[in-house]
Amino acid sequence: MAYFLQQLINGVTLGSIYGLIAIGYTMVYGIIGMINFAHGEIYMIGAFLAVLSFTMLGAAGVTWVPLALVMVLLVAIVFTATYAWAVERVAYRPLRGSHRLAALISAIGMSLALQNYVLLSQGAGVKAVAPIITGRLTVYETPGFDVTLSYIQIFVMVLTVTLMAAFATLISRTALGRAQRACEQDRGMALLLGIDVDRTISLTFVVGAALAAVAGVMVTLYYGVIDFFMGFIAGLKAFTAAVLGGIGSLPGAMLGGMLLGMVEAFWSGYFSVEYKDVAAFGILVLVLIFRPTGLLGRPEIEKV
Amino acid sequence: MVDGAAPARKFSPVLAILKEAGLTAAVAFALALPLIGLRGFTRGGQMVVETRFEWLAVAVVVVFLGRVALILSRRALPALRRGGGHVAGWGGAIERHRLALGAAALAFVLAMPFMPFADRYIVDVFTLVLIYVMLGWGLNIVVGLAGLLDLGYVAFYAVGAYSFALLGTTFNLSFWACLPIAGACAAMFGILLGYPVLRLRGDYLAIVTLGFGEIVRLVLTNWVDFSGGPNGISGIPRPTLFGLEFKKRVAEGQTFHEYFGIEHAGVHRIIFLYYVILMLALLTNFFVLRIRRLPIGRAWEALREDEIASRALGINPVNTKLSAFALGAMFGGFAGSFFAARSGFISPESFTFIESAIILSIVVLGGMGSQIGVVLAAAAIILVPEMLREFSEYRMLVFGMAMVLIMIWRPRGLLSHRKPTILLHGRGGRAGGGGEGGP
What we know:
The complex is a heterodimer.
Chain A: H1 2-32, H2 39-60, H3 65-92, H4 100-122, E1 127-128, E2 136-142, E3 145-150, H5 151-173, H6 175-185, H7 187-192, H8 197-223, E4 225-226, H9 230-245, H10 250-270, H11 276-290
Antiparallel strand pairs in A: 1-4, 2-3
Helix pairs in contact in A: 1-5, 1-8, 1-9, 1-10, 2-3, 2-4, 2-8, 2-9, 3-8, 5-6, 5-8, 6-8, 9-10, 9-11, 10-11
Chain B: H1 13-35, E1 38-43, E2 46-51, H2 53-76, H3 85-96, H4 98-111, H5 120-145, H6 154-171, H7 175-197, H8 202-222, H9 224-227, E3 233-234, H10 256-260, H11 267-291, H12 295-305, H13 307-312, H14 317-343, E4 345-346, H15 353-366, H16 371-387, H17 392-409
Antiparallel strand pairs in B: 1-2, 3-4
Helix pairs in contact in B: 1-2, 5-11, 5-14, 5-15, 5-16, 6-7, 6-8, 6-14, 7-14, 11-14, 12-14, 15-16
């Protein structure tokens, strides 16, 4: 029971990170119907910015943790969002309206290019930062095994919930959110009603990248080590999470991320660490076979 | 991007160009500032960051000049915008002279190993290109003909390679005995994977196949007792020519050079391997060209164009898609066992997602469904990084950017060929879904 609880806590933490990345996939898919393959790389860039800015702040003598965190988050969000904006502008916008595979290949190319760009500019070695938030709470004590909740895990969960609330408000209450939902439903009609579709799509990429950047900062804090290749597998899993929850559905992305994080945590806790990725993809296959639209997705009726 | 310059035309065009390039350079500055201008590395167990502002300046200047050059070239050559007409012309010309070109290409590849420039390295590179041509043709069945997006094709390549490697090292079976078995294994995997997922829509199918490819690689990496894990399998038997081996001497029987009474040379084996893959690739091509004209091939193309209409006309979508999946997988399996035989050593490293991406981009770049396009694309995609070997650090970066640029320039591939193989009203009928294809 204690062990179960510990794995649940680990799973929710991991799931928060996947969920934040998955939202970027699901939003872009919802609005332009393409798999933004480079999104994992955007998250990786967010993590690199986190490492760089933590190191610089440490050198500059900023030691008050909350201030450092806020500054790192801001830096990571701003620069990562610029990357996503530029990627959309260069690699996806010229291909709008051509067939789906062209956009997918372009995205795969962009993903390779970004990965190797970071490899060349920052080197192949693993980057590590000293733990910034340390300490843990003991939640539940049993003889031989204590269930603990580290402060980083609390930070990840609280920040995720806050961001989700802010994001839900953005989508449901603001003009940008309305424009986004309109574009998702019918891009042509939205254009006729005076919505700047190109700008909305750009902003969708920016918002998705901002969430991915936060996930990158979180993962840097949580694991302490990053490398240039981390975006690929994380991106794949976040996409899995988005599909699991029903692609195009925002609560679905978060739910899918949570489920995936928990599957991974429980699988590594009870079975084997080596096969946790196999378990994650296995779940994806099973869900798609038995519920092809994902958990919260709307069934799509194909008409002639 | 060009539209952005339109309101600025009130000023002199030079100013407008400078303004636009300046904006691009400003964005480039923001992008390059953290990742090029700074570099983090570990010194004495601690992360330190050093600045590299000279690199940053170079990057910004390069982007500025590149943008100016791009704007100028666009104004000078409006044809360059969006898939210039002359290339569409090539596409049409290549399609028209298909037979002559095919014969010339065939003559060239047959004679290639004996041409004066062909040394060991060149023949080896051509062998590599042919492996990808064969993989491209195999995947073309799935993606180009049946219209199913498969991002995990490398799984079948891996199944073929490991089937031969395991059978060859455990039971001492020869390459030729294993080749059909490896193909059958891969086809069986194709059916196993295909059966549950083929009723999914395109993108879901893509991601499930991607997941399947990763599962195969992870199992091969982690199931050490079965596959040797990350260390892979070495000592895979080499193919023989009707039992003649390409070694200096063997314990019993004759070797290739003894039988023909020539000097032993290592290059014989390389040339032999080249002809083996050439034969396999030509077999694939012949098979695909013929099956396109059979009812099953027409059913694939019909399903690709309109699934609902095809079902209404009585085509069984499950069997049709499964056959495409299985046949595509089979050729992937053949290519995989050749790959294992050629290198004598395989490990899961060779079967990463990048391979799937490369094969898929060969098919898409070639223009889906076009057999000649696949050859051109495979040659470009394998030869260009090979020529860039001196700049090996940069080659994957260039490769990725080239994928983006080519897609922007020719979204339908080099030779866009999506005409149905058979038309109702003969050649004059309207080609369906041709897009911006040939003239």
